[in-house]
């Protein structure tokens, strides 16, 4: 460790050295609160603003901007950041009074935000949410940053990471308990109270009023919405009779999602549910697999068709719970049914059973994987490799089928072409209704084990090719970044540049830390590659996602501890190790990892993914330890992470594997910009 790292600078005049809580516990609490608040905002805003179901990392980008600004703001003011709880209260009220939901009276395309909605348009509500998220997170970040000058550089970073892990653990625990947002709001209010601890009457008012508004508003939402909070959605339901038929309508995040009704009525009212059984020539149903079992209607239909055993796979525990409790046929209580709450692709990769019929039953997630730009929960279920996995689980004479409201004819043809590529022959394609392109795609293990009503005409010249695991973007027709994303991200970067200049002063203040900025950009891409890779290897479930994010923080913490306690190689050597780790990650394909047994797959995947993450953070820790201005250096790195969040969308064009190349080029750029003194040390 350098002499500069061992020297602890005197606290600046604005450092809250008189705070009732000691520096270290205060830093842990502030860091935990910062990450908890970020996760809660992503989760809650997405449940009320439908556009955020397709811009999940929009709030994440605003959070990164706010956290970076919070660090850059340290030393420029002595006032407590009461602006944070006040802005949070205003944001909660705006979203509750002006939610954005799907207009149920019209048909719409539920991707790329091309949908008919009630509420403010995206060009109005999304900038409001982005700016509000930045301001809200700037407050806790400023409190974290004020602790940094009071400690050794790496010691402060260590406690920051411990706090971040605590925040992840707290939010994960509340997700497991299905805690409603009023609990999240109460945690936030308590954290504000502990960290700000107002000593004046004005301060107490500035803190108490917005805190009460947040908790009260979220309590009203919790009591009036009658919602179940799953780890993915705000789930609301309504039980009623349609002409004497008991039906349960289920909505997720304000979007009509499922209907639970008796199997006989569903078969009578919608033909698509019967077609998979009619197209299966063998008519044998000893074992059936249903992916996207939801509230149970597809399971009830399979049982009514004579299935002797059904494996029902559903990713959302609350949707399954609703079906288990309220479905009129009680399919989940049938001894012939085995329920597995997991991701459908993960089940296919880990299961050893064979089936007479495999159904992908309307597996729309309507939400994105947190922190993974455009990866939806079901994205890996519709790739060519997923269809091949389904084919490999069919018994001789078995049949695969999928049905949905595809809404675009090219989407039906793309999926049919994907099935054709996986099975080696044309599938049956039945367009049940032109309204919403309601279609059923069925393929037997051989052409003789399927019975088509008419031959599918085949893909046209305008049909996009099948999606693969590297670019699993089913709803992206062309290999490009949609214009709405380009415009939005461009505006985000412009606003961020102006905000940094306004809050932090001249850009020259951050110029010495240009390499740390690029380290932040590259690391976010590396983290995205890890999140998406583990989602493919182990499932897109919230548990896997939380474990991966926690694992990344543990790897970062390990890098910091190694740097603090041992003499590590100089930075040029560590950059070499980092680039070597990126090359290794590039050379080890996910397809090979998927072929390994699960325990061995986990060991190899963790080793390959976390080697470059560990090396990158040893580089950062050594460079950060020797920086002259710790808070500015850390702020520059966080702003780089925000830019990296924008560059995530390159995966839409080049795929996730190629993000490793982009990250490698950025790390090379950071090495070139490394100051001579740091390189020599």
Automatic annotation (TrEMBL):
It holds the Pfam family Spermine_synth. GO terms for biological process: methylation; spermidine biosynthetic process. The chain crosses the membrane at residues 27-46, 52-75, 82-102, 122-144, 156-176, 182-198, 205-229, 483-504, 516-536, 542-560, 572-588, 600-620, 632-650, 656-674. The keyword Transferase applies. SUPFAM superfamilies: S-adenosyl-L-methionine-dependent methyltransferases. GO terms for molecular function: methyltransferase activity; spermidine synthase activity. Keywords: Membrane, Methyltransferase, Transferase, Transmembrane, Transmembrane helix. This is SAM-dependent methyltransferase. It comes from Streptosporangium album.
């Amino acid at each position: 460790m350098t002499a500069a790292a061992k020297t602890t600078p005197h606290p600046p005049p604005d450092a809250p050295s008189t705070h009732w809580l000691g520096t270290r516990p205060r830093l842990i609490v502030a860091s935990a609160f910062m990450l908890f608040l970020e996760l809660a905002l992503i989760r809650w805003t997405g449940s009320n603003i439908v556009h955020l179901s397709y811009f999940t990392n929009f709030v994440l980008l605003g959070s990164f901007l706010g956290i970076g600004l919070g660090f850059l703001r340290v030393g420029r003011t002595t006032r407590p950041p009461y602006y944070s709880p006040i802005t949070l209260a205003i944001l909660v009220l705006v979203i509750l009074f002006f939610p954005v939901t799907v207009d149920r009276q019209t048909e719409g395309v539920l991707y790329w935000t091309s949908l008919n909605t009630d509420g403010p348009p995206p060009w109005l509500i999304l900038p409001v949410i982005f700016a509000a998220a930045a301001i809200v997170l700037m407050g806790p970040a400023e409190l974290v940053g004020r602790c940094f000058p009071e400690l050794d550089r790496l010691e402060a970073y260590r406690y920051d990471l411990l706090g971040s892990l605590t925040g992840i653990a707290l939010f994960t625990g509340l997700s497991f308990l299905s805690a409603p947002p009023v609990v999240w709001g109460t945690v936030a209010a308590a954290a504000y109270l502990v960290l700000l601890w107002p000593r004046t009457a004005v301060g107490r008012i500035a803190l108490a009023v917005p805190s009460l508004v947040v908790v009260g508003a979220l309590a009203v939402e919790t009591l009036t919405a009658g919602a179940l909070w799953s780890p993915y959605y705000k789930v609301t339901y309504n039980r009623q009779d349609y002409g004497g038929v008991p039906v349960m309508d289920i909505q997720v995040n304000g979007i009509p999602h499922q209907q639970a009704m008796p199997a006989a009525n569903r078969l009578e009212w919608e033909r698509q549910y019967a077609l998979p059984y009619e197209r299966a020539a063998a008519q044998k149903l000893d074992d059936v697999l249903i992916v996207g079992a939801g509230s149970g209607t597809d399971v009830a239909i399979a049982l009514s068709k004579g299935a002797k055993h059904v494996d029902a796979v559903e990713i959302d525990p609350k949707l399954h719970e609703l079906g288990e409790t309220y479905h009129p046929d009680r399919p989940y209580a049938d001894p012939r049914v085995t329920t597995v709450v997991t991701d459908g692709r993960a089940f296919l990769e880990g299961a050893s059973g064979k089936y007479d019929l495999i159904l992908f039953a309307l597996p729309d997630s309507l939400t994105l994987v947190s922190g993974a730009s455009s990866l939806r929960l079901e994205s890996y279920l519709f790739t060519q490799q997923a269809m091949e996995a389904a084919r490999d689980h069919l018994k001789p004479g078995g049949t695969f089928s999928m049905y949905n409201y595809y809404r675009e004819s090219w989407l039906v043809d793309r999926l049919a072409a994907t099935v054709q590529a996986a099975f080696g022959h044309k599938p049956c394609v039945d367009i049940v209704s032109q309204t919403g392109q309601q279609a059923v795609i069925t393929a037997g293990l051989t052409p003789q084990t399927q019975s088509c009503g008419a031959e599918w005409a085949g893909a046209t010249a305008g049909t996009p090719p099948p999606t693969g695991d590297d670019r699993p973007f089913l709803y992206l027709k062309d290999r490009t970044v949609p214009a709405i994303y380009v415009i939005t991200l461009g505006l985000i970067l412009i606003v961020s540049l102006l905000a940094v200049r306004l809050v932090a002063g001249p850009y020259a203040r951050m110029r010495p830390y240009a390499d740390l900025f690029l380290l932040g950009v590259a690391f976010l891409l590396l983290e995205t590659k890890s999140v998406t890779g583990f989602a493919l290897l182990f499932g897109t479930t919230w548990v896997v996602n939380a474990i991966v994010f926690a694992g990344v923080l543990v790897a970062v913490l390990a890098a910091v501890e190694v740097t603090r306690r041992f003499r590590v190689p100089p930075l040029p050597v560590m950059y070499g190790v980092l680039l070597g780790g990126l090359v290794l990650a590039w050379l080890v394909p996910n397809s090979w990892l998927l072929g390994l047994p699960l325990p061995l797959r986990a060991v190899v995947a963790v080793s390959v993914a976390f080697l470059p993450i560990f090396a990158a953070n040893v580089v950062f820790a050594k460079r950060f330890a020797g920086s002259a201005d710790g808070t500015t250096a850390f702020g520059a790195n966080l702003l780089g992470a925000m830019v990296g969040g924008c560059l995530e969308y390159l995966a839409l064009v080049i795929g996730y594997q190629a993000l490793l190349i982009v990250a490698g080029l950025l790390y090379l750029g950071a090495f070139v910009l490394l100051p001579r003194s740091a390189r020599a040390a």
